[in-house]
From TrEMBL:
Organism the protein comes from: Pisum sativum
Protein's job: Converts proline to delta-1-pyrroline-5-carboxylate.
Lineage per the UniProt record: Eukaryota, Viridiplantae, Streptophyta, Embryophyta, Tracheophyta
An annotated Gene Ontology molecular function: FAD binding
E.C. designation(s): 1.5.5.2
Protein name per the record: Proline dehydrogenase
Ranges of residues in domain Proline dehydrogenase: 182-466
Pfam families per record: Pro_dh (PF01619)
Known catalytic reactions: L-proline + a quinone = (S)-1-pyrroline-5-carboxylate + a quinol + H(+)
UniProt keyword terms in alphabetical order: FAD, Flavoprotein, Oxidoreductase, Proline metabolism
Family: Belongs to the proline oxidase family.
InterPro entries given in the database record: FAD-linked_oxidoreductase-like, Proline_DH_dom, Proline_oxidase
Cofactor(s) essential for the protein: FAD
Amino acid sequence: MATRVIPPRILRKLRYNTATKPFQPSLTSPTLSPPCILDQKPPSTTTLLPPAVADLNFHDVEKLFTCVSTANLLRSTAVLHATAIEPIVDVGTWLMRSELMQTDNPLRNLALAATRSTFFDHFCAGEDAITAGQSIGGLNKAGLRGMLVYGVEDAHDNEACDRNLQCFLHTVDVSRSLPPSSVSFVIVKITAICPMSLLERVSDLLRWQKKDPSFKLPWMQDSLPIFSESSPLYHTRKRPEPLTQQEESDLELANQRFLELCEKCVQANIPLLVDAEHTSVQPAIDYFTYAAAIVHNKGENPTVFGTIQTYLKDAKERLLLTSKAAEKMGIPMGFKLVRGAYMSSERKLAADLGFASPIHNSIMDTHKCFNDCTSFMLEKIADGPGGVVLATHNIESGKLAAAKAHELGIGKVNHKMEFAQLYGMSEALSFGLSNAGFQVSKYMPFGPVETVMPYLLRRAEENRGVLAASGFDRKLMRKELVRRLRAAVY
């Protein structure tokens, strides 16, 4: 990530320290925008954006990419272009998933070296937490912040879960050691600290309880609504057997790991954000998240954030149900809103089982769901406790969210609201929102190349599937490269 000079308004932004002071913001701290009169009517998606959002500028590429080195622009353009070429993605995906990568051999070493110097360097923050922390320094100079995540995906036994927990705990220590405001969140994947088979079993039991409320789960802690009436339950086709004694013991170990990580984040005063996964294990992930939120989310600002994938048809209904239940219990909730990353596998599984896809039927329906959930959360945090991370690569969603925040009188630099994009993607949107005064973070995975390979493969698949976002970036980057070339010649 290249660096930029910090504008004065960004320097003022850094006075708000959600990394070290996320829970008790000063009531006397200045904001960057004046208070606005609230409009009781929600904005139509077809209305013009208010003048105050006009500074969300994507036309002035010189300003947008100021101080981004030409070398980094060239590399970013090349990598994004490569991941948009389907044959390259197909061949790369086949190679990385082939048996050739399972044993130590010259071809494997060559492939990993090539990946490390190209896609890994572009989409990942480093091979360890210390290096990732150094990468965050570049982000800070650009007016952005980092969300640190150890890039491991799944664990299959307690030994692996214990190792992964130590890496997550170390991530908190590194985040705490960095300058104030550098890190906005530490990210955790429940699939890395609880065996996958157990998450599938717990999800089956939770789904069956939804089908049959008389079905008792003696190990279940207090939680919040996990399902809505429209939630797909087809994964669990028959009554599951209760957890064995060993499974209950393993579940308690997983709970202890998550509790230790939550307590570590509370001590460091850094919010913890739980990533979402595919629907076969998401109910168990939500159960872990909401049970922890009941214990740790106090006052105005949440410690534990969950994730809502808005490409799911039941996303908005679940968000409303969970938020309403949490409000009744006096629990401030935080959510990251994303579109989703498992479209192909979700549709294939549903089709194989003879059910309709849980994914929205059209991309426009997904856009509408994301924007509706964004509007709901912004209205909620404008009038009360809670927080929201708007993780989007979509330019229009960014504009609409900025307009909604202005309409509600939410200051641009606001500890309750954060935009986020993946490291190495949607740079134009990240820089544009930051230049407009909003808090923006980059999702920054790190770890050995072999560990983060599943993440890199998903990024390649996603980049191929959402060419609108990467194409917009590449177009602006090329425009800036041409401008620089002409300036050098003339």
